[in-house]
């Protein structure tokens, strides 16, 4: 619930200064480490990833209005609604750094009325989950998540594993092993089940936050080399996604190298950059503040410039700054505090910190 803070002209100025000191210093400390880590690893060969900021997502609309992504929204809608390639299978990767808004953008598109009127089923898969994976191969785990959305029962999914294990054991005992493990046979059965459930349907699947360790690093387009090399069904993930009915797959990832593995052409990679429009950044900050206070600091040029510098145009950083408890000073009620505010105190923190 919003409450009135009753700012005086002096306290408005004080708020701007304290906002800069407290909010920006806090955000620099919290976010700089993650951004620095991302920048240090994005162009290296290491496969290590920071898991502490990885969360399980769902398809629900963001709890806040997104700003500054009008062109990106139109671009993704065109990808999904383009009549010229209406029946072709297409995939696209949205790639960008932590906090830039990849998931929020895709949620907005996923829940768009025009998109909903064209695509059925629409499936949202969070590549991360807090639930136990029970030692499952990640591809098998993800396939089962998709099939559960398509309302396949748990008993049926369990039967795939049991039958695959029994078949592999029987062939081994008979000396007729074809080299496939029980997991490979199970994955093959799951891919076949997925293909049957998506066949003739104009489906949309979003894979959110794909990472190297997920082992989900294959293009889903049909590949002549793969088809000629492996005639057997279920050797590749692409087999589970029917072609010819206009299916679409969207991925989000932070890793440019991963993005290049998921699609065939560079134009299928959609780079999402931090916001460069100060007005959009201010709207994000203001929207959060208005939920807490009935009055907000003035959007003076210096405040907005510092907001841009410290948030780097990343929506998540802007919202986190806004959720901090700002310090309000009233000269008449807090003379001791106001007297201690010297010109030296009013200096804004350096952007290099």
UniProtKB/TrEMBL annotation:
<dbReference type="InterPro" id="IPR002182">
    <property type="entry name" value="NB-ARC"/>
</dbReference>
<dbReference type="GO" id="GO:0043531">
    <property type="term" value="F:ADP binding"/>
</dbReference>
<keyword id="KW-0611">Plant defense</keyword>
<dbReference type="Pfam" id="PF00931">
    <property type="entry name" value="NB-ARC"/>
</dbReference>
<feature type="domain" description="NB-ARC">
    <location>
        <begin position="70"/>
        <end position="219"/>
    </location>
</feature>
<dbReference type="GO" id="GO:0006952">
    <property type="term" value="P:defense response"/>
</dbReference>
<protein>
    <recommendedName>
        <fullName>NB-ARC domain-containing protein</fullName>
    </recommendedName>
</protein>
<dbReference type="InterPro" id="IPR027417">
    <property type="entry name" value="P-loop_NTPase"/>
</dbReference>
